[in-house]
Write a structure and sequence with these properties.
Blueprint (H helix, E strand, L loop, with lengths): L9 H23 L5 H21 L7 H26 L6
Helix pairs in contact: 1-2
Length: 97
């Protein structure tokens, strides 16, 4: 049984690194801006994009079978639902006087 190993070239790794550095700079810039309630949301969105880039290239998910991507999507949806439910619960709590 022969396995096909995908080797990512140096140029691709450099471009991925540049993309991650640029996204990190954008995250730092967003943290300095006064976006009020959107600051955390924008920072988490950028972090999600960075995680996607790492998953796709450094963990070779882009080159694996589609079923692994589907399983990862299901796991992320379950995780996201827990995060959303936690924030919904937290937002409806009342403070004791």
């Amino acid at each position: 049984m022969e396995k096909n190993h995908h080797i990512v070239g140096y140029i691709t790794n450099i471009w991925v690194w540049v993309a991650l550095v640029v996204l990190t700079i954008i995250t730092i810039t967003v943290a300095e801006l006064d976006l009020q309630m959107l600051t955390v949301t924008v920072a988490l969105a950028i972090a999600t994009v960075k995680a996607g880039v790492v998953l796709a290239y450094f963990m070779h998910l882009k080159f694996d079978k589609i079923i692994l991507t589907i399983f990862l999507g299901i796991v992320l949806l379950v995780f996201l639902s827990f995060i959303v439910l936690t924030f919904v619960d937290y937002s409806f709590r009342t403070t004791a006087i």
